[in-house]
């Protein structure tokens, strides 16, 4: 059950509570814009005690299993704000440099540090892997000189070190030295000593209740603290709360959950496992591909790593008649990981993830990965098809099949079957809304029966799952006026590649950046293709012909748009010189371009398409 309350910083930075940021959570990324916003909020309270409080949003904490017998809380969301405010306090502490300020200095240190079991003081916030040493060194330095000597050279590129310098300069200029310039002294603080100014700033940040004017309660920084239990779903909460800062992604949540300390015998083994089974796979500089958004028709754009994690879990669970939604992915991973009852099973899981991830990275292409391909590149044709259709629902099935079967002939037959299924249904305007269920079911059935995809899909004849017949496919190609231009372009591109492959032409491929040309323009009624003498039937017939297979052709990417509006006698001369393809040469001698020509070319092209996309379930 979730518990929430409104709190001040002093309620979080208590004597006994440590705040643990998951070891592999993202690094500290706040920059000067964020620091400036915080400072302006704090300074507004400093100069005006009657001003309303400065609300900094939600903080999510969890009392997780490994810390159940201690006073440690896991920071699920809020590390950027907590680190920033603690560094602001540290900058103030290091500006308390005389004996009369020792009490204030001690009070700040009590907030920033906590006693361990050996009664040794350590930073209250335990940072993640990347920032831990930098943060600890700054918090542990007893003076600004110490920070500069110990940290400047080692951490000058770290945002935490830059944050410290930013706030130290702001406090120095706008709190301490403002006394030296009379015009800069706000009415509410101009009679205060430097010490009292520092005390006031400390009170605003910490909300410790120690106000200098007892007749007024000074406003301060506040948060909403949300306490989570082990069974609560962080991902769902991130999706429903309007939190400051960027929430953790699904992949970050999964990573943090896998690489928990209690799952490994020592910190060294934890670090080694993280290095081998996550960092080397997903986080190297040359692995930005994993964070690239993949094309999908879903409501949210998912990156390649999230799609991989989804595919992997679908394969592992092999559910029957149910799916794993992306919105529930982390909750499903928590249950799955918890079911790995011992450290040996966790290691086996990591090995399994690595094997599947290497296959995914090698074979799963995005449109950005493809410029041109050969017809023999069956995997390239598969992912070009999925990229144009914008479907990722089949990814779990592809990953399952590629991992289980290493034989390239089997993989090629499988890839061609998926291309066939997806293209036929697309041109028949059949829905893809149930593809998540269909392909999850395919993983279950094909792993159980060791079946191929044609045998699996042959069981279905409903509109949502069926494999269209040749007649249905031809009707879709000939009569559809809803098909997207990119679908036509993809189909003609594959036909052209196949012709090049069969004819052993001097060229091996063509650029997919070639353009699609409608011989009768789509806006033909605004061009010279329209004649005033045309009757209603002629207009309707021309409208039907525009979006049919026989009326489209590929042309070079430098095609002049003005040519598209030309009437046939003029356009065909340009087509001759441009080298339009496929199957255009036989028609460039025709004096007219109308119903008979379009239908004849449609039939010829359909034979080419059927040779490439045959009926696989008969």
List the helices and strands and how they pair.
Layout: E1 3-8, H1 9-12, E2 18-20, H2 32-47, E3 54-62, E4 72-77, H3 79-93, H4 102-112, E5 113-115, E6 121-123, E7 125-126, H5 132-140, H6 144-155, H7 159-176, H8 194-206, E8 221-228, H9 234-240, H10 250-258, H11 267-283, H12 304-317, H13 329-338, H14 343-363, H15 378-389, H16 395-404, H17 408-427, H18 435-449, H19 453-457, H20 470-479, H21 485-503, E9 515-518, H22 536-546, E10 552-555, H23 568-578, H24 595-612
Parallel strand pairs: 2-4, 2-7, 3-8
Antiparallel strand pairs: 1-8, 3-4, 5-6, 9-10
Helix pairs in contact: 2-8, 3-4, 3-7, 10-13, 11-14, 12-13, 12-16, 15-17, 15-21, 16-18, 20-24, 21-24
Describe this structure in words.
This protein is α/β, with parallel strands linked by helices and 618 residues long. 50% of the residues lie in helices and 8% in strands. It is built from 24 helices and 10 strands. The chain has a 6-stranded mixed beta sheet with strand order 1-8-3-4-2-7. The protein has a two-stranded antiparallel sheet with strand order 5-6. A hairpin with a 5-residue loop joins strand 5 and strand 6. Helix 12 crosses helix 16. The two termini are 55 Å apart. About 1% of the residues have low confidence.
User: How many separate helices?
Assistant: 24
Mean pLDDT: 86
Using DSSP, what is the number of strands?
10
Q: How far is the N terminus from the C terminus?
A: 55 Å
């Amino acid at each position: 059950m979730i518990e929430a309350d409104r709190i001040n910083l002093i309620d979080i930075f208590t004597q006994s509570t440590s705040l643990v940021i998951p070891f592999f959570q993202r690094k500290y990324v706040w920059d000067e814009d964020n620091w400036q916003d915080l400072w302006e909020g704090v300074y507004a309270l400093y100069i005006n005690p009657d001003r309303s409080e400065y609300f900094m949003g939600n903080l999510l904490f969890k009392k997780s299993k490994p810390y159940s017998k201690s006073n440690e809380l896991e920071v699920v969301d809020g590390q950027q704000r907590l680190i920033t405010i603690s560094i602001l306090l540290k900058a103030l502490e290091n500006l308390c440099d005389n004996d009369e300020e020792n009490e204030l200095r001690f009070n700040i240190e009590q907030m920033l540090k906590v006693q361990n079991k050996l009664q040794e003081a350590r930073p209250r916030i335990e940072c993640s892997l990347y920032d831990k040493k930098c943060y600890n060194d700054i918090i542990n330095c007893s003076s600004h000189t110490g920070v500069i000597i110990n940290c400047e050279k080692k951490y000058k590129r770290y945002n935490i070190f830059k944050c410290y310098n930013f706030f130290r300069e702001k406090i120095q200029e706008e709190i301490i030295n403002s006394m030296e310039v009379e015009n800069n002294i706000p009415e509410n603080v101009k009679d205060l000593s430097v010490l009292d100014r520092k005390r006031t700033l400390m009170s605003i940040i910490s909300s410790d209740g120690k106000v200098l004017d007892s007749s007024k309660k000074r406003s301060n920084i506040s948060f909403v603290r949300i306490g989570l239990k082990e069974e609560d779903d962080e991902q769902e909460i991130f999706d429903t709360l309007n939190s400051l800062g960027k929430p953790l992604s699904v992949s970050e949540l999964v990573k943090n959950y896998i690489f928990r300390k209690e799952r490994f015998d020592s910190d060294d083994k934890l670090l080694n496992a993280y290095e081998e089974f996550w960092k080397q796979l997903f986080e190297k500089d040359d692995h930005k591909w994993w964070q690239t958004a993949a094309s999908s028709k879903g409501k949210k754009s998912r990156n390649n790593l999230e799609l991989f994690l989804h595919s992997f879990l679908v394969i592992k669970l092999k559910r029957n008649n149910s799916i794993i939604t992306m919105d529930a992915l982390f909750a499903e991973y928590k249950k799955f990981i918890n079911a790995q009852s011992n450290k040996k099973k966790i290691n086996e899981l990591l090995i399994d993830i690595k094997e599947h991830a290497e296959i995914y990275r090698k074979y799963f292409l995005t449109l950005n990965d493809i410029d041109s391909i050969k017809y023999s590149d069956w995997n390239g044709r598969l992912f070009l098809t999925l990229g144009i259709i914008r479907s990722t629902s089949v990814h779990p099935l592809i990953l399952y099949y590629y991992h289980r079967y290493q034989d390239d002939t089997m993989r090629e037959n499988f890839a061609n079957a998926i291309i066939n299924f997806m293209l036929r249904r697309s041109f028949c305007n059949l829905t893809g809304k149930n593809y998540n269920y269909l392909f999850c079911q395919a993983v279950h059935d094909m792993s159980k029966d060791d079946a191929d995809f044609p045998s699996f899909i042959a069981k279905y004849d409903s509109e949502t799952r069926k494999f269209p017949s040749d007649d249905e496919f031809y009707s879709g190609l000939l009569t559809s006026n809803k098909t997207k231009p990119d679908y036509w372009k993809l189909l003609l591109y594959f036909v052209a590649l196949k012709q090049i492959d069969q004819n052993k032409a001097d060229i091996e491929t063509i650029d997919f950046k070639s353009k699609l040309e409608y011989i009768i323009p789509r806006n033909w009624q605004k061009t010279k293709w329209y004649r005033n003498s045309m009757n209603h039937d002629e207009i309707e017939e021309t409208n039907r012909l525009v979006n049919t297979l026989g009326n489209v052709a590929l042309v070079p990417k430098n095609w002049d748009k003005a040519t598209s509006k030309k009437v046939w006698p003029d356009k065909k001369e340009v087509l001759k010189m441009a080298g339009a393809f496929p199957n255009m040469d036989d028609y460039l001698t025709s004096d007219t371009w109308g119903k008979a020509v379009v239908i004849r070319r449609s039939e010829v092209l359909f034979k080419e398409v059927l040779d490439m996309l045959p009926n696989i379930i008969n």
